[in-house]
Design brief:
heterodimer, A: disordered N terminus, B: alpha+beta, Immunoglobulin-like, 2 domains, disordered N terminus
């Protein structure tokens, strides 16, 4: 009698332990399967955009609806920037030309240049500038409150820096921001940027999202 | 008073002293250095522009950048004190640094090219900032490097992204 009362709880305990162990393995395998190796992936808690009120180069609202359902490659900069901005926008435009044959980009991809220098980057200036790189590139900007809200939400930064002779430059985040159709910031690619790497990152993020994430 | 070439070891030694010693000593060292420098005019002799290009500017852009490779086959450090470009362009030495994911662009006062060195100005780093003065960019661009009393001039082709 005594032996039996002892054996039953031990058996139950072993069963429970084995089940828990098996469940643990199962969860690990499931997680491994759901999270493929994507370099620079902001997961499992990607920032999600909940507010956007900018204006594009045509004077149209550039709001969350313009990003929802799209894959957006976004870059912050300004047109008086001689080096890093044209360098990055050129890489983005060439990546977009390569991605034109990739279904997700062809159907839902877009390039966005957000100017953090609204005083000098008027609609006309911005329009001519983005058209040069890619006829479908969106140029957007807005007032300081909205630019700050956007950069803060994406973990980006910009800061006006005064220079001699009433001139100024703007320090700004130099990454390419990848936003998915659900307004999630899935990745930020830091410079130096290479066309092939941008294409690879885009495809990897699309595959990641297509796996049900 | 222009900064110019110094024997490398002297320049390095003083820089190290400036970094390591109290502020007063550093200032004193800098003063001695600048006095020495004034007596050692730099020259572009031995320096050559191996290659270079100017990024084509989008319509209406006020600025673009020139990139180049300088080689110093001379026996002493050459110091570029400033740049000039054919009017209406204005050229200044700048460098972009990316720190914590943020790009900073700052003017450089001078640029040292040690003896035997090959110095590359490339997108995302060292460059000549070109102000376009509301004129479309027409090429090639004549860029002049001033090293103390001498100059080095190069004709740089305009290109959309280099290498084409």
């Amino acid at each position: 009698m005594v032996d039996q009362t002892i054996k039953i709880p031990w058996l139950a305990l072993c069963t429970v332990t084995l089940c828990a162990f098996a469940a643990g393995i199962g969860v690990s395998l499931w997680r491994a399967g759901a999270t493929p190796q994507v370099e620079g992936l902001l997961w499992p808690d990607p920032p999600v955009l909940t507010r956007l009120a900018l204006t594009d180069q045509h004077g149209a609202a550039f709001d969350l609806a313009r990003l929802r359902g799209k894959w957006s490659l976004l870059f912050f900069g300004f047109t008086h920037c001689p080096d890093v901005c044209p360098t990055t926008l050129d890489v983005m435009a060439r990546a977009a030309r390569e991605l034109a044959t990739h279904p997700a980009y062809a159907a839902h991809g877009q390039l966005v240049f957000v100017s953090v220098d609204p005083a000098r980057d008027t609609r006309g200036v911005l329009g001519r500038y983005v058209d040069y790189f890619d006829a479908r590139m969106i140029g957007a900007t807005g007032d300081e409150a909205e630019l700050k809200a956007l950069t803060r939400a994406l973990g980006a930064l910009y800061m006006r820096v005064e220079q001699a002779g009433a001139q100024y430059t703007v320090d700004h985040s130099a990454g390419i921001f990848f936003l998915d159709p659900k307004l999630r910031l899935l990745s930020v690619m830091t410079p130096p940027h290479v066309v092939a790497d941008v294409v690879t990152r885009f495809d990897a993020l699309v595959a990641f999202a297509a796996a049900g994430n | 008073m222009r900064r110019a070439a110094l024997p490398d070891a002297m320049s390095r030694g003083c820089r190290a002293a400036v970094a390591a010693l109290p502020a007063r000593t550093g200032a004193h060292c800098a003063l001695v250095l600048s006095m020495l420098v004034a007596r050692a005019p730099s020259a572009c002799e031995g320096v050559a522009v191996e290659s270079g290009w100017v990024r084509a500017a989008p319509p209406g852009a006020k600025m673009t950048a020139a990139y180049f490779v300088l080689v110093n086959r001379g026996q002493a450090t050459a110091t570029v004190t400033h740049l000039s470009a054919a009017p209406p362009l204005t050229a200044t030495l700048h460098a972009t640094h990316v720190h914590d994911g943020r790009a900073h662009m700052r003017a450089l006062e001078t640029l040292d090219i040690p003896a035997g060195a090959r110095l590359e100005a490339a997108p995302g780093g060292l460059h000549a900032m070109l102000e376009l003065a509301d004129q479309p960019l027409a090429g090639p661009v004549t860029l002049t490097f001033h090293c103390g009393g001498t100059t080095l001039t190069a004709e740089l082709p305009i290109s959309r992204h280099g290498g084409d």
